[in-house]
Design a protein that fits this description.
Blueprint (H helix, E strand, L loop, with lengths): L16 H14 L7 H14 L3 E5 L4 H9 L5 E4 L6 H7 L4 E4 L22 E5 L10 H11 L2 E5 L7 E2 L2 E2 L6 E5 L12 E5 L2 H10 L21 H32 L5 E3 L6 E2 L5 E5 L1 H4 L3 H10 L30 H9 E4 L7 H12 L1
Parallel strand pairs: 2-3, 2-4, 4-5, 5-8
Antiparallel strand pairs: 1-9, 6-7, 6-11, 8-9, 10-12, 12-13
Helix pairs in contact: 1-7, 2-7, 3-4, 7-11
The protein binds pyridoxal-5'-phosphate.
Pyridoxal-5'-phosphate binds next to helix 4.
């Protein structure tokens, strides 16, 4: 039955197949399929302009730029981060032999609480790795003040913050570097892909070496680099998707408007409003279920929706700090992270993408209102 059609939490933004074919033909003619080719260079240029950032380096996914940024800045010891994110954030520290130190989140935003960062700093702390969760900008000014006071680097996991601006300026220029993910599930995708945003040409050069084994020339290897170069096919795909991403974000915004209108008076259901001065990308639409007031727990609602073919996602549950690799850390306790625990227990991200129909949105809303 049509009404039982599954509504997925996301749907990939795909370029026009004929247009993509034309670019593929061009790549076949050029016979240059990876290693800083024509489309790789074109996409870097186009992204700098679109995102309003000075320098960018493309990667094969959104995890390797995190790992590489830590390498480039020679981060060691302990890094302060948030447990309320996708596991890749903390994994990037682990892959560098760095001890993650979890700090609780601000319930008003879901982002790391700047007021709690200083208490977590020790003599081994070298950096802060915050996340702009759901694309909501962190308090970058406060975080930078703390970083400057203690001589710490700041690397933002900006995987959710593609195109997000505060007062007309890109959020991606905050801190020392910011990383992006272009995974299929994100607002802007290159199938798999990612990028690192930096402030100066010298850093870009170093990052470009690091993503190509450390090669700085035909015979010179300057660092123990990794291989994370984006190929020509995905760069070309990315150029085409960049042309339609604004339209996709506008479609998402309209879904968010409908959700907010319909859910604002449902007892026990809350959500974030847009922030003043912020250009949002509507990458996710998390709602929070207060079981007592709603009359049903988050999980009860989640599974009821699932039964009816409405697939939300419990992002970010469970917290990173509860996974076996990390739960032994002193900072991983519930007492240290009460807000993160609560949010992880209450959240459901509703389906949110450019291709949701009015009927889909209606069905999703009715699941929650019922
Ligand atoms: C998606 C995501 C990543 C990882 O990106 P991949 O492209 O899947 O490697 C990292 N951090 C956050 C917060 C993410 O959501």
């Amino acid at each position: 039955m049509e009404s039982n059609k599954q509504i997925t939490v996301t749907s990939p933004l795909l370029p026009d197949l004929d247009e993509f074919n034309e670019l593929l033909k061009d790549i076949w003619n050029r016979k240059w399929i990876t290693n800083n080719g024509h489309y790789h260079q074109e996409l870097e240029k186009a992204l700098c302009e679109y995102l309003k950032v000075p320098y960018i380096s493309l990667f094969t996914n959104g995890t390797l730029p995190l790992i590489t940024a830590l390498q480039a800045l020679r981060i060691t010891g302990e890094v302060i981060t948030t447990p309320y994110s996708f596991v890749a954030t903390t994994h990037s520290l682990w892959w560098n032999g760095i001890k993650p130190v979890f700090v609780d989140i601000d319930p008003a935003t879901g982002n790391i609480d700047p007021d709690k960062i200083e208490a977590a700093i020790t003599s081994k702390t070298t950096a802060i790795m915050p996340v702009h969760v759901y694309g909501k900008p962190c308090d970058v000014k406060r975080i930078q003040e703390i970083a400057d006071k203690y001589g710490l680097k700041v690397i933002y996991d900006a995987a959710h913050a593609f195109g997000v601006e505060v007062n007309g300026e890109s959020i991606l220029t905050a801190g020392d570097m910011s990383t992006l993910s272009f995974h299929a599930t994100k607002v802007y995708n290159t199938i798999e892909g990612g990028a690192l945003v930096m402030h100066d040409e010298q850093t870009k050069k170093r990052i470009d070496y690091l993503k190509n084994f450390g090669f700085a020339g035909e015979t010179e290897v300057v660092a123990p680099g990794i291989n994370s170069k984006m190929d020509e096919m995905r760069s070309a795909y990315g150029l085409l998707n960049l042309r339609q991403v604004d339209k996709a974000i506008e479609a998402r915004r309209q879904v968010a408007v409908k959700y907010r209108e319909a859910l604002c008076d449902v007892p026990g259901i809350s959500f974030f409003d847009d922030m003043p001065g912020v250009k949002h990308n509507y990458s996710y639409f998390p709602v929070f279920v207060d079981a007592e007031k709603y009359g049903m727990t988050r999980d009860e609602l989640y599974f009821k929706m699932k039964e009816h073919g409405v697939l939300g996602r419990r992002y970010f549950y469970p917290l990173i700090s509860t996974f076996s690799t990390y739960r032994g850390l002193e900072s991983a306790t519930q007492e240290n992270l009460p807000n993160a625990y609560r949010m992880a227990d209450e959240v459901i991200c509703l389906p949110m993408h450019h291709a949701l129909s009015g009927e889909d949105v209606e069905r999703i809303i009715n699941e929650i209102k019922r």
